[in-house]
Each structure stands twice: as structure tokens, then as C-alpha cells.
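dude i think i finally got it to work??
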Amino acid sequence: MKKVIILGLLFIILLVFSGAFLFLKQFPDRELATISASVGNADDCEIGGSSKVMAVGNFIWWYFNLPGISQSYIDEGNSFVAAGFDALICKQGQAGHPENLRRIKRLVLHGQQFGESIDSHGENRFSLLHRAVISGDISLIKFLIQEGSDVASLTASDAVWYAKPYANMTSYQLVLALRDNEWPVDDEILLLIRKAGLNE
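look at this
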């Protein structure tokens, strides 16, 4: 009887993994990486019990889906690092943020294994560091700076994207300027930028 139960459970697990794999295979590579790095959608960020579901999703994605697309994804000119730009959907304090951030970090580290720059833009005009700054995600900012992200990339990215007169500003001056424009920037973020080795 126990063998029957065990075999039944194994069959169900295999069925779930197979279904998840077939579902994700329908998406183009870039969409796959982006969807996989996020928790699904913004609603998931607020669901208190969703972290367990997201943890299972992490396991399926990391060990079953990602290895199969890695080389082809890079060969097609895509960027795992840049995919994190679109995938950052949860804010600090939301239930889904830890798992969302965990997947983005894994995207970055995975991309670096394939020779990607941590400041890779991919199809985006912003670096992931810039995305973290304008989102006010201190945890992600700390991680990216620790991994060697260049804070000077903030200036170049913003100048290209908005065509504003920020091109000659230092990164720290840019962040100060942003406080009075589209995005309020937390004082702790300003301190992180200042400590990143800039000579103001």
C-alpha cells in the first residue's frame, strides 16, 4: 500500500513539473526569463501566503527550465541581467518581495557566469542599478554595488532615456536632481551612492 501511495505522489509531482515546463516553453526566451524572474504579477506581491508558492516556482524554474535555455538565450543576444529590469515588480515590505528579489539576484549571477556585465542594458536603456534606484529598492542596490555595478552608469542611462541635461552630472548629482523630478530618492540611497567610491 505504501508503495502505491509513494508511486502516486511521484506521478503527481512529475505531472506538475511537466505541466510547468510545457507552460513556460510556450514563451519566447526573453519572456521566459522575465516571467521566471518575477513572481507572476503585481497582485502576487501582496498575497501573504504566496511566498511558498513562489519558492516552489523558484525550484522549478532554476533546476528544470533555466538550464535548457541558457546558451541559446545568450547566443540570440539577450541578457539575463537586463531581464531583471522588467522583472522587479514587488516593493520592499510586500510579501512577495524577498522571492522576487531572490530570482533577480539569480538572474544576475547566472548572466555573469556567461560573461555578461552586471551593467548590461540588453534591450533596455537603463541598467538594473538604475532600475533599483528609481524603485527605491535598497536591498537590490546594495547587492548590485557589492557585485561591482558602476554607479556612473546612472548618469549615462538617464541622459539617453529622458534626453534631459543630466549627461555632465556625476551619479550623485543625478540622484539629487531626481529628488526634485520624477522619483523621490531615499536618503539611505543617497548615502549608498556616495559610499560607492565617487569623488564629488
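The chain is about 65% helix and 0% strand.
im so relieved honestly
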